[in-house]
Specification:
single chain; mainly alpha; 3-stranded antiparallel sheet; 18 helices; 6 strands; globular; binds s-citryldethia Coenzyme A
Length: 430
């Protein structure tokens, strides 16, 4: 642990602020007293150089392209365990024993149903409502039904709310999908694992027995693991900021879902597939790569680039492998969209613009092709991202609430507006 300080000098005044090291990764300069001592704010739009909190949950090394959940590499978790094991790890900080895992799975399983009255929320939406709009509304409304787990000062209620969120998101997501295609809702089943249960609620129909494909269920489960958490990304920061005011966890998760919807964030998987389908054939790729490099053209390669990863997103590699597994299992190995994606990736990774700006495929580049092959429309892709990220949001929310130094988030600003001036009655204005 270094005990160095950072000296700030403005004019003839100087101040020293402590430098703190993390376990791994960049150190920080603790500027908490900066405004009190210097009467200046610091400005960092987009928080490119700003840490908002201390956390023990997830670590990303953008240069090496590594991602750790509670210290465990994402590759090992994706290969070794299932999504609920990752949920336990993110929430409690350690991998579960066999007994702990069985108890956790059981507790999640017995919270998968939602209050029957909540069905009415769905029928209030137009049939063509985007499923993400439904998710924001219905998840926010959970706080109207589960008052017994909204007292965030009670550790037991915090844990019940966490379990309810993890357990009910698949049910709500599947209902949003069924509503959008005019099919009856399917109830969860207690004899199915988390991801098989979700696929059954999405694709079973009352007219026939549903048989989950274990290879597809395993792929779905792995996709959830890849999306579970990712440090202080935009939607997680939204959940933390909403939670810092003491808002109930369901409202905070609804805020996170709203933020994730943006095409620069969780909406990129839907945008990436739409882009690949717009490109259509391999011979069209050079034109789109040219447009992506043209400063006057707002077009960007969706599924490429990342604020933190300046190397290959490790999740994208696993997603690409999963994509091939799913397409091969379904006999879609020659999917033309996959051919376009692979050729686009090859071209972009050799192009000096992308190399110089360190733009690599991110998790969203291959996920759309995979999810479409699993049977989901593009409008459901970000819903699946939100389903998986709920455990990350909840774990980060819980860490923030349990931090004794926690206080309401309230940034300041550089004001460049009008100086004080007097009101002019409307009849005296020019
Ligand atoms: C997710 O934060 C997270 O961890 C998010 C996430 C998670 O798990 O929570 O990983 C999930 O959101 C993944 C990212 C999904 N978004 C996309 O795929 C959309 C396309 N990507 C870009 O919009 C962009 O790369 C961002 C938003 C992802 C990152 O933007 P930054 O960090 O603000 O970088 P930037 O916009 O400043 O870009 C740096 C340069 C710019 O050129 P210059 O102005 O320096 O000349 O790279 C260029 C950009 O124009 N650039 C791209 C590009 N991404 C950046 N050029 C073409 N195509 C792209 N995709």
């Amino acid at each position: 642990m270094t005990n160095t300080t950072a000296k700030f000098t403005i004019g003839d005044k100087s101040w020293d602020f402590p430098v703190r090291d993390g376990t791994i990764g960049p150190s920080i300069v603790d500027i908490t007293p900066f405004y009190r001592d210097s009467d200046h704010f610091t400005l960092d739009p987009g928080f490119t150089s700003t840490a908002s909190c201390e956390s023990k949950i997830t670590y990303i090394d953008g240069d090496k392209g590594t991602l750790l959940y509670r210290g465990y590499p994402i590759e090992q978790l994706a290969d070794g365990g299932d999504f609920l094991e990752t949920c336990y790890l993110l929430l409690y900080g350690e991998l579960p024993t066999a007994a702990e895992k069985q108890d956790f799975d059981s507790r999640v399983t017995y919270h998968t149903m939602i209050h029957e009255q909540m069905m009415r929320f769905f029928t209030g939406f137009r049939r063509d409502a985007h499923p993400m709009a439904i998710m924001v509304g219905v998840v926010g409304a959970l706080s109207a039904f589960y008052h017994d787990s909204t007292d965030i000062s009670d550790p037991h209620q915090r844990m019940i709310a966490s379990l309810r969120m993890i357990a009910k998101m698949p049910t709500i997501a599947a209902m949003a999908y069924k509503y959008s295609i005019g099919q009856p809702f399917e109830y969860p089943r207690n004899d199915l694992d988390y991801s098989s249960n979700f696929l059954k609620m999405c694709f079973a129909v009352p007219c026939e027995e549903y048989k989950a494909n274990p290879i597809l269920a395993r792929a779905m489960d792995r996709i959830f693991i890849l999306h579970a958490d990712h440090e202080q990304n935009a939607s997680t920061s939204t959940v933390r900021l909403a939670g810092s005011s003491g808002a109930n966890p369901f409202a905070c998760i609804a805020a996170g879902i709203a933020c994730l919807w943006g095409p620069a964030h969780g909406g990129a998987n839907e945008a990436a597939l739409n882009m690949l389908e717009e490109i259509g054939t391999v011979d069209q790729i050079p034109e789109y790569v040219r447009r992506a490099k043209d400063k006057d053209d707002p077009f960007r390669l969706m599924g490429f680039g990342h604020r933190v990863y300046k190397n290959y997103d490790p999740r994208a590699k696993i997603m690409q492998k999963t994509c091939h597994e799913v397409l091969n299992e379904l006999g879609l190995g020659n999917d033309p969209t996959l051919q376009v994606a692979m050729e686009l990736e090859r071209i972009a990774l050799e192009d000096e613009y992308f190399v110089e700006k360190k733009l690599y495929p991110n998790i969203d580049f291959y996920s759309g092709i995979t999810l479409r092959a699993l049977g989901f429309p593009a409008s459901m892709f970000t819903v699946l991202f939100a389903l998986a990220r709920t455990v990350g949001w909840i774990a980060q929310w819980k860490e923030m609430v349990e931090d004794p130094k926690q206080k309401i988030g309230r940034p300041r600003q550089l004001y460049t507006g009008a100086e004080e001036r007097n009101y002019v009655p409307i009849n005296d204005r020019g």
